[in-house]
Write a structure and sequence with these properties.
This protein is α+β, with helices and mostly antiparallel strands. The chain is about 35% helix and about 30% strand.
């Protein structure tokens, strides 16, 4: 079931529109239930595939968050982040009986007893879930990493500190990201605005970015930036505060095929 993140993001770029909505689910798994959680996502994988075919949603991706076991703050991060993408609000609000859809998907593939047992496991594996609904504002061009390079997703949540923040992201930082894409160290960047969130989610985050980079890329400042770049970077960084910063590996995905 595990696929390369780069091929998935390539498909993502062919389905994007700037009105696209994405629901993020940050998931903490109950202690000792990692395998059970994975089995639940494997069950849902086929259900989501059918939901996309039925025009209930546009895409579904499950990321595993990488953690540093020696860092107490890193341990507090979610275990997984799930993206559910929709082409618009009308599609997002479609009423769906997910159990009926799942029964349709697994009819003839799984006994009723086995299905019920698997289905009932779904709500038991999560300790906590925090959600955000975001709208796509902008994204970079797509360029695959060179053969042999492994990609990682960087998922960052920012608080806008002034009214210039969105322009800095889309007019200045995006330009720098595209330069890195041309240099082969980055494959993708996207910029999303928070529309709503669950009560237990961070209340300060206003925007998210997601990047796909070379997993082994080392950040450096070998080239002396111009005065203009120094000032743009200075005031651009001052226009935002990073609240969330996660490094992720893609596990499962399905996308609408145009």
């Amino acid at each position: 079931m595990k696929k390369q993140i780069l091929s998935i993001i390539f498909i993502l770029t062919s389905t994007i529109s700037f009105s696209q909505l994405i629901s993020y689910e940050a998931i903490w798994v109950n202690d000792g239930m990692e395998e059970e959680y994975i089995s639940v996502e494997e069950l849902w994988s086929e259900v989501k595939k059918q939901a996309i075919a039925d025009d209930i949603q546009d895409f579904w991706v499950v990321f595993k968050v990488e953690k540093d076991s020696t860092n107490p703050e890193s341990i507090k991060k979610p275990d997984y982040i799930v993206f559910n993408g929709f082409k618009d609000d009308e599609q997002r609000k479609k009423e769906t009986n997910w159990k009926e859809l799942a029964m349709k998907v697994y009819k003839g593939k799984m006994s009723k007893r086995k299905f019920e047992k698997a289905w009932e496991k779904t709500p038991t594996v999560r300790k906590e879930t925090k959600t955000f609904l975001v709208e796509r504002l902008d994204n970079s061009i797509w360029s695959p990493l060179a053969e042999g390079k492994e990609g990682r997703a960087l998922f960052n949540g920012f608080k806008a500190l002034n009214e210039d923040y969105e322009n800095f992201e889309m007019e200045y930082f995006k330009e720098n990201h595209n330069k890195q894409i041309e240099a082969g160290s980055r494959a993708w960047w996207e910029f999303n605005k928070v529309i709503s969130r669950s009560k237990n989610a961070n209340q300060d985050v206003t925007h998210f970015t997601m990047d796909v980079i070379d997993a082994n890329f080392q950040w450096s400042n070998d080239n002396e930036p111009s005065f203009t770049d120094k000032m743009m970077s200075k005031y651009g960084v001052a226009s935002r505060e990073r609240i969330i910063g996660d490094r992720m590996m893609m596990l499962y995905s399905h996308f609408q095929q145009n």
